[in-house]
Amino acid sequence: MILQRRNRILRANPAIRAMVAENVLQPADFIAPLFIDEGENVAFEIPSMQGYFRRSIDGTITEVKELWAMGIKSVLIFIKAPDELKDNTGKEAWNPDGLMQRAVKAIKNAVPGMVVMTDVALDPYSSYGHDGIVENAEIINDGTVEALVKMSLSHAEAGADFVAPSDMMDGRIGAIRNAFEQHGYTRTGIMAYSAKYASCFYGPFRDALDSAPGFGDKKTYQMDYANRIEAIKETQLDIEEGADIVMVKPAMAYLDIIREIKNSVTVPVSAYHVSGEYAMIKAAAKMGWLNEEKAIIESLTSIKRAGADLIATYFAKDAVRILQG
Ligand SMILES: NCc1[nH]cc(CCC(=O)O)c1CC(=O)O
Ligand SMILES: [Mg+2]
């Protein structure tokens, strides 16, 4: 054959492939989610998330130091509240001495450079396991936003660099931004879960925090996975209301949405490779059906290729270890 173009030339060996790679993962791409519990020396392996732990603050600090030493710049923190602190107001969420607030201070104190992001939603504190306040079996919007504002202010006060509202109530980004302005928190960022879908892939996370909804599902606030255009509407509105970073969640089943958002906004886009996506790889690898390391890197690269500037993933540490060979 006489060909004008032989595309295989650019795939001939690892050096050439590295030279022409369009997307390369790096440690600063990752946000490491951390599950935090009360107590000391607690390291509870989440049954549906093998190799991932819920830790007390002491062990969390050790973990954060390791992540920082590896070049990971950001953590996203979640807490597990004991049942006796759960109610239908969520008031423990803005307790200045609550677990979240203590954890933020401890992390910023131990590793000041680490960018600390906090989950903002009522589910870990809700006796109903919902992200908002329940009235007549409905998750009310405006009353919930008031609670989320108090929660966000208490995280800012504790020293969080970013709050990350994951609840999908309408208007909460604007309300939080206004409150930050009014209270002088002009350096606290907002990473909005803007296109968060009602997904079965959050199952293992709800095991990790004991936060499964006590009745019904989250479809009246989280998005319908049949929808694409709606993700743009949600995301553009969050940006107008003041979001610094927007997020798509989950990631791998929503690569089209990540790309769509990346093409339509001018703020950084993050994607959350969620607990169920972690569990699928872990389970298949355990069965010997997938090569775990290859599956991790291919998955995360595909999320970056789709357009994610940042990836929240339980594989953050593994990925850096694998990349550094
Ligand atoms: N607002 C709660 C919250 N924040 C992050 C996740 C899921 C993360 C994961 O599955 O890894 C959830 C669960 C949910 O919405 O039910
Ligand atoms: Mg919205």
Automatic annotation (TrEMBL):
Q: Which residues form the active site?
A: K196, K249
State the pathway, as annotated in the record.
Answer: Porphyrin-containing compound metabolism; protoporphyrin-IX biosynthesis; coproporphyrinogen-III from 5-aminolevulinate: step 1/4
Q: List the catalytic activities from the record.
A: 2 5-aminolevulinate = porphobilinogen + 2 H2O + H(+)
Entries under InterPro entries matching the protein: ALAD, ALAD_AS, Aldolase_TIM
Positions of Mg(2+) binding: E234
- Enzyme Commission identifier(s): 4.2.1.24
A GO biological process held by the record = protoporphyrinogen IX biosynthetic process
The protein's matches in PROSITE patterns, at most eight in alphabetical order, are given as: D_ALA_DEHYDRATASE (PS00169)
Sorted alphabetically, the Gene Ontology cellular component annotations on this record are: cytosol
Q: Tell me the keywords, alphabetical order.
A: Heme biosynthesis, Lyase, Magnesium, Metal-binding, Porphyrin biosynthesis
| Listed GO MF terms | porphobilinogen synthase activity; zinc ion binding
Q: Which family does it belong to?
A: Belongs to the ALAD family.
| PANTHER family for this protein | DELTA-AMINOLEVULINIC ACID DEHYDRATASE (PTHR11458)
Q: How does it assemble?
A: Homooctamer.
Q: What is this protein called?
A: Delta-aminolevulinic acid dehydratase
User: Which organism is this entry from?
Assistant: Limnovirga soli
Ranked from the top, the taxonomy reads: Bacteria, Pseudomonadati, Bacteroidota, Chitinophagia, Chitinophagales
